[in-house]
Amino acid sequence: MPTPSPVDPADTVAADTSTESGSIPIDGYKKRTSVTCTKFDRVRVNGDENEVTVKGICRQIMINGDSNKVTIDAAIEFVFNGTENEVQYTRYLNGKQPVVTENRPGNIVQKASAKLPSRDSKSKIVK
């Protein structure tokens, strides 16, 4: 198992993680949408081939489907219940690497620059 790279303090965002929040469902097929986590929400993407932009700081991003692309500012956890999904995040929440749970193989999580996303920095999830 590879050692995670150190977290750059410039790429961190602080949040109170003690509050429980609501859920933001995104249901559909080939849907393009944007949502905002305002209260440390959980986001559920249900469907295939969706493109979702999530602003704000979220507790969890759960993807229940295949071939979805999600761009997010920051989250504590990413959960994959599908395959061939891609998540790109720009910040570390409270200076910690996000927890990744991959219940089906073949998903990609990548850290992108807070200024310009880079598709060159992809790394497959390694368990």
Q: Could you explain the architecture of this structure?
A:
There is one protein chain. By secondary structure, the chain is mostly beta strands. Helices cover 0% and strands 49% of the residues. The protein has one domain. The chain has strands spanning 12-13, 23-29, 32-37, 42-48, 51-64, 69-80, 86-89, 92-93, 99-102, 108-111. The strands form 2 sheets. Strands 2, 3, 4, 5, 6, 7, 9 and 10 form an 8-stranded parallel β-sheet that branches. It has a two-stranded parallel sheet with strand order 1-8. The protein is globular, with a radius of gyration of 14 Å. The chain starts with 11 loop residues before the first strand and ends in a 16-residue tail after the last strand. The model is unreliable at 116-124 (pLDDT under 50).
| SSE run | EEEEEEEEEE
- Kindly give the count of domains: 1
Major β-sheet annotation: 8 strands, parallel
- Helix-residue proportion: under 10%
Outline the low-pLDDT stretches.
116-124
Total DSSP E strands: 10
Task: Provide the β-strand percentage band.
Answer: over 45%
Query: If you average the pLDDT, what whole number results?
Result: 87
Distance between the termini: 6 Å
Number of DSSP helical runs: 0
> Which class of secondary structure composition applies to the elements?
mainly beta
Overall, the morphology is globular
